[in-house]
Amino acid sequence: MTNERTNQVGQGNHPFRAVLWDIDGTLLLSESMHFRALRHAVATEGVEVPDEFHHEIVGRAAKVVYEKCRQTFGLSMSFDQWRRLKYSYYTAHATEIAVRPGALEAWRMFGELGLRQALVSNSDRIVVNANIRVLGLEEPGFISVSINDVLRGKPDPEPYERAATLLGVKPHQCIAIEDSPTGAQAALAAGVHTIAWPEDWMLEFPPNIRPVAELEPAIRELLQSTI
Q: Partners of 193 in the beta sheet?
C-alpha cells in the first residue's frame, strides 16, 4: 500500500485508535500447520483425522479442540500430553508457515496512519511467540494476548477487551481483523468493529458480518466511511 493510498483515508481523521489482529489464518497461513500438528499428535494413538474435521475446530481454543478430538476419536491421552505433542510439532515446523498475502502490507498502512496494533490469539503463548518470530514483529513493548493471558478465550470477548486495555484504548476505538466465526463473535461481543477476512469461505459468520475477499479495499472503505 502506497503513501498515496494512505493519505486518501486521512491520517487521524477517523474514530479508530488501534487494530487488533487475529494471527492464525489472518496474518499467517498457519491453519494447515495447526491441522498437521493435530494429526501428528493423535496419530500416536493410531487415529487418522479426516480433512473435514478442520471445519469443526478452526479458530477454537486448544482445550476445546482437544475435547472435540477426545469425543470424536476416543483419545486416551491427557490434554497436557496432546498439547505437548501438538506444540512441539508446530514450533519445529513454524518456519515453513507463509505470511498471508496482503497482511503485512495492511499492517504497515495502519502504522503509517498512527494506529497502534496488537495480536489477539486463541493459541497458547508458545505458539503465539513462534508466530511473532515468523512475522518478524518482535520488538520491545509489543503487545499480544494469548489464551494463557485470559480466563476465557474466543468466542468470549475477554481477549479483545484485554488487548484494548493493554493498548490504553476503548474496544469501540478498535478494528479487529479475523478469519474465523469464533474470533469474529468475540470481537463483536467486545464492541470492536470487525472485518472478516476468511481463507475458508465455507465458514458461517454472524449475520451482521459480511466477509471480504480483499483486505485493502475493505480497510479503505471503512476508514473513508468514518471520516
A: 175
Q: Cα dist. 131→91, 102, 136 in Å?
A: 9, 17, 9
pTM of the model: 0.86
Structure confidence by residue, pLDDT tens digits, 26-70: 999 998 999 999 999 999 999 999 999 988 888 788 899 999 999
- Cell numbers linked to 193: 468493529
Q: Who's near 26: CB < 8 A, 6+ residues apart?
A: 100, 103, 177, 178, 179, 183, 197
Bridging pattern class, strands 174-178 and 18-21: parallel
Kindly list the distances between the CA atom of residue 160 and the CA atoms of 34, 57, 132, 185, in Å, as whole numbers in the listed order. Answer: 22, 20, 18, 11
Distances (CA, A) of 84 to 38, 78, 88, 182, 204: 11, 10, 6, 24, 31
218's enclosing H/E stretch is: helix 215-225
Distances (CA, A) of 5 to 35, 43, 119, 196: 37, 48, 24, 21
* pLDDT (average), residues 82-92: 96
- How far is it, in rounded angstroms, from Cα 137 to Cα 133? 6
C-alpha pair distances (Å), 113 with each of 101, 168, 174: 20, 17, 13
End-to-end C-alpha distance for the chain, whole angstroms? 19
> Which three cell numbers mark 195?
472485518
| Average pLDDT over all residues of the chain | 91
Q: Which amino acid is at 217?
A: P
CB 118 within 8 A of CB 168: no
